[in-house]
Design brief:
Oligomer: homodimer
Number of strands of chain A: 25
Distance between the termini of chain A: 33 Å
Radius of gyration of chain A: 22 Å
CATH superfamily of the largest domain in chain A: EvaA sugar 2,3-dehydratase subunit
Helix content of chain A: 10-25%
Number of helices of chain A: 12
Chain lengths: 483, 483
C-alpha cells in the first residue's frame, strides 16, 4: 500500500524514477554524450598532452613547507593542515602478526569525493575529470567530479577555487543518491574517512576544460583498462545504489550464466546464503571478540623502521617506504609543491572468489583487521595482500586463499586488471584486481569468511565502516561486468 | 524471482517464517504461557517478596573494593575491571553550551543484553527475568534474559555462573533475530556500547526461578506501567526487526486512525517524508560539519564540580551527583558489594512529537550531540532533557520544542509513562516518556530535526550508533501501541 504525500520529499519530484532504475539504464548505455569510447580515449590523450607533472624524489627532511619534529620525528606541514606521518603501535592478539609498529598517515579531516550526475535523454551521465596526481605511474587518470580535502576547499593551498564544490557543499536543492563516509587503506591511514557523494543535478551546468560526461556503461568498460579509473572514482562508483528487483527485468537478456548470476545477485529478493541478520550478527560478534589495540606513537620510536638517506624504510626492505617528492605541475595552471608519499615495495593482489549458489552469485568476503580502521574490522576481498611482504613473515601468516587465486585457470578469471591507488598520497601503488569464479562446492576452511550477495554488499555500502576500499574497488569492477 | 538454496542458511530452516511475521503475531497475542496479565503481576509480587536489597549511601572514598586515585582523583575498582569514574572535557562549538567539563563513567567493555525467544504454539515468547538493581526506585523490574557485563560473565564477580549465557556466546545453532552494539546515555557514559541480542531457540529449556515467558503483546501492555520494564529490556525490544509490508495485513482491523497510521509507518513501502538516501545524507552531513572535541581528563581537574562530603556534585547543585553505595542483596543468594552510582538531580522528559503525513505516522527526531557518543551525533527523540538543568543555563539553551510537549492537551497524548534508566549504574534515574501527536501542518523551526517513519527507524536500528537509548526506549513504547 503506497500513500502519496502532499508534501514532496526534499529535492526529489514525485515523478522521479527510483535511483536503481536510473542507474541500471545508464549501466546499459554504451553510448551517450560521447558516442564512441574511441572519442573518449582521444580526448584523454589530448588532456595528457596538455598537462605535465614533474615529480622528483627529495629527502624527507628537506621538503619545502614540511618539517620533521625534533622531539617526535613526526613529519607535518608548516600550516598544521593536510596530514602528518606518525608512528603506530598495533596489538592484534591471535592475528598473523600479534604486535608490530609502523609509520602511518594521520589525516583526520574528512574530504569529499563526489560525482555529479545528470540525465541526458533519460540516461544518467557522470561528470568525470581527467586529473593528474604525483603518485600515478601514468600521470593522468579519470577522477570524480570533485576530489578535495577540507584543506583544499577551505583554501589552505591558496590555489584557485575548487570547481563544482558548491553542488556538494549545499546539496539540499538536488537529489542525493549517495552520501556516506568511507574508510581508505587501513594499513597506511589512521582512521581516514572521505565522504563519498553522488549528487544528481537537473539544471544546465558548464562543462569545464578537463571534464566530460560518461554513462555508467562507458565507465564500466573503462574499468577493464589498467590504471585508468582512479581509486577515488572507483570508490564513489561502488557507492551508487545499484540494486533492486527491477534490475532483473532491465537486464533480461544476459548472455551467459555468470552474468545472469551476477544480475540476480543484485536483487534483494534473491535467497542469500546468510540473512542480513546473520551477516550483521557475525560482524557484531567479530568486532566484540577481536581485540585490536592501536596507539599513535612518535615516529622516531617505531622499531624496525629507520629514517635514513632521506626516506623511512623497514629493516627488511619490504612493506613500504615513506619518501619525499617535489612536484611541479604545468598545464592550465602552474603549481609547485612538496609532500611526503607512501611508496609500496611491491604490487598487490586484491581478489574476490565468487561462486554461484543456486544461480545467485556470491562473493567471499573476509572480516579483516587493519590498524587504521575506526571499528576493529571491515569486510575485505577474499585476498588482499602484497605477496612479497610474506617473505618477512612466518609461513602461517600467508593468506589462506592466496594460492587458490594465483593458481586460477584462465577460464575462472571473470575480471583481471591492474588499478592504481590514490595518487595524492601513494607513489606507484598498484594492485592487480581479480574476480575468480570457483565451483559451487568450494568452501573456505578458515572461519573469518562469509559468502555475500551483491545486494547485501550494496546495502552495507549505504553505511560507514563496513566495506573496505579494496572491496569497494572490486565491487565497482563487478558492477562493470553487469552491462 | 526467488531462488531456493540447496545449502540451508545457517541456523534457520527453510520453513521458518520471516522474523517480522513471527514478531507481529506475538505482538497481537495478549495471552500466552501466562494466560492473564493478572497472573504475571501476582508472580512479580511473589518475586518481590522473595528478594530484598539494602542500598546505603556511603562516602565515595570509603567504598570497599574501590579506590580514588591519589594523582588523578579518578575512581576505579581494585581489579581494574568494571568501570571508572573519570573527568571529561567537551567542546561543541555552536552548541547551547560550547565548552564544559563533567564527571563521566568510562566502561570500555561491551556487555550483552539478550532476550531468548521461543515459539509456543506458533507464538513467539520472550524469556524475561525479574531482576533487582541497586539504583531502581522500586527494587525489582522486568529485565532481559541476560544482562551481563564482560566482567560479569568472565567471573570477576566470583559469583555464580550467569544463566543462559551460552545461548548468546555461541549463537551459531540458533536463529539470531538481532545482534547489534548500541550506545547508552551519552551524557553519563564515555563511548559505552552494549550488544543487544535476540536469539530464537527451538529446543526445550529449563525456566529458572525468577524467569517467565511473555508474548510481545503482553510485554507491550506492561510498557504502559510505570517503572516496570527496565531500560535494558526496552532497548533490546526496540531492536526486534518489527517492520515489513505484511504487518498491514496482520493488523488489518486497527481500531482508530492513530493506530492505523502507526501500523502503516512500519511498512517499508509507505511513502516517507524523506528517502533513506536523504536521511543518511543528512546524518553524514551533520557528522562531517559538527565539531565535537571530547577528551578524558583527570576527575580532580574537572572545573565547577567538587568532591565533598563523600560525593561529587556540581557547584549549582544541578545535573547529577556521583554517590557511593553499599549494597546487600538477599534472596536466592546473598551478595554484598559496593559501587559508585550516578544520581540525577531531577526527573527527565523524553518525548517524540508524532504526526500523520498522508496517513503514515512520522516521528520527529533530532540529531543530538552528546559527549559520550562514538560518532558525533545520534538520532534522539524530539525532546530529551531534565527541565531543571536549564535553570543554570542561558534561556536560549532551553530545548526548542520542550514547551510544545509540556503544554500538550490530554487528547494529544498517545503514550505517557515513567520509566527507570539502568539501575546498575544510575540511582533513581527516571524519565517521563511521552508520545505527543501534533497536527499534520506542524513543522519545527530548528534545522536539526527530521520526520522519520518507524520503518526507517527500525532499519537504522540494525546498525550501531544511529539511534540513542532514549529514542530506543520510546520506539519500544511505540511498538507497544500497535497491538
Amino acid at each position: 500500500m503506497i500513500y502519496s504525500p502532499t508534501v514532496e520529499p526534499t529535492g526529489a519530484g514525485l515523478d522521479d524514477e527510483p535511483a536503481s532504475t536510473l542507474i541500471a539504464r545508464s549501466v546499459l548505455a554504451r553510448s551517450g554524450r560521447i558516442t564512441e569510447l574511441e572519442h573518449f580515449h582521444r580526448w584523454m590523450a589530448d588532456e595528457k598532452r596538455r598537462s605535465h607533472m614533474d615529480v622528483r624524489t627529495v629527502p624527507l627532511e628537506s621538503l619545502r613547507g614540511w618539517r620533521v619534529d625534533g622531539h617526535t620525528g613526526n613529519i607535518g606541514h608548516d600550516s598544521g593542515k593536510f596530514f602528518t606521518i606518525e608512528g603506530l603501535d598495533a596489538k592484534v592478539p591471535g592475528g598473523p602478526v600479534p604486535h608490530w609498529q609502523q609509520p602511518i598517515i594521520n589525516q583526520p579531516e574528512v574530504g569529499i569525493l563526489g560525482i555529479l550526475v545528470k540525465q541526458f535523454n533519460g540516461v544518467l551521465h557522470c561528470l568525470m575529470q581527467a586529473k593528474i596526481e604525483p603518485g600515478n605511474c601514468n600521470g593522468l587518470q579519470l577522477s570524480p567530479t570533485l576530489q578535495a580535502t577540507r584543506s583544499n576547499y577551505t583554501r589552505v593551498h591558496q590555489g584557485s577555487a575548487v570547481p563544482y564544490l558548491d553542488y556538494f557543499r549545499d546539496s539540499t536543492q538536488h537529489r542525493v543518491l549517495a552520501d556516506v563516509r568511507q574508510s581508505e587503506q587501513g594499513s597506511w591511514f589512521h582512521r581516514k574517512r572521505n565522504r563519498n557523494m553522488v549528487v544528481e543535478v537537473s539544471e544546465d551546468l558548464e562543462v569545464l576544460d578537463g571534464f566530460c560526461w560518461l554513462t555508467l556503461g562507458q565507465l564500466h568498460q573503462l574499468l577493464a583498462v589498467d590504471d585508468l579509473v582512479n581509486m577515488d572514482a572507483r570508490t564513489v562508483l561502488s557507492c551508487m545504489p545499484f540494486a533492486g528487483p527491477d534490475l532483473l527485468a532491465l537486464f533480461a537478456d544476459s548472455r551467459d550464466e555468470f552474468t545472469a548470476a551476477l544480475i540476480r545477485s543484485y536483487s534483494a529478493e534473491a535467497v542469500a546464503r546468510h540473512t542480513m541478520a546473520e551477516v550483521l550478527g557475525w560482524i557484531t560478534d567479530v568486532r566484540t571478540e577481536q581485540v585490536c589495540h592501536v596507539e599513535l606513537i612518535p615516529l622516531r620510536e617505531v622499531s624496525h623502521w629507520r629514517h635514513e638517506d632521506g626516506k623511512i624504510s623497514h629493516d627488511s626492505g619490504l612493506f613500504f617506504n615513506v619518501i619525499g617528492a617535489s612536484i611541479t605541475a604545468a598545464g592550465r595552471e602552474v603549481r609547485a609543491w612538496s609532500q611526503p608519499l607512501i611508496e609500496p615495495c611491491d604490487e598487490g593482489v586484491v581478489a574476490f572468489l565468487a561462486k554461484q549458489i543456486d544461480g545467485v552469485l556470491h562473493l567471499l568476503v573476509q572480516a579483516k583487521t587493519e590498524p587504521g580502521y575506526v571499528d576493529v574490522i571491515e569486510l575485505a576481498p577474499t585476498v588482499q595482500c602484497s605477496v612479497s611482504n610474506y617473505d618477512a613473515l612466518p609461513p602461517e601468516a600467508r593468506p589462506p586463499l592466496l594460492d587458490t587465486v594465483l593458481s586460477a585457470g584462465h577460464e575462472q578469471l571473470r575480471f583481471d586488471a591492474v588499478h592504481s591507488e590514490e595518487g595524492g598520497r601513494f607513489y606507484h601503488a598498484r594492485n592487480r584486481y581479480l574476480v575468480v569464479e570457483v565451483a559451487s562446492d568450494f568452501e573456505p576452511e578458515h572461519p573469518s569468511y562469509r559468502w555475500l550477495t551483491l545486494a547485501q554488499l550494496v546495502d552495507l555500502l549505504r553505511h560507514s565502516n563496513y566495506i573496505n576500499v579494496q572491496a569497494r574497488s572490486l565491487i565497482a569492477c563487478l558492477h562493470g561486468l553487469s552491462g
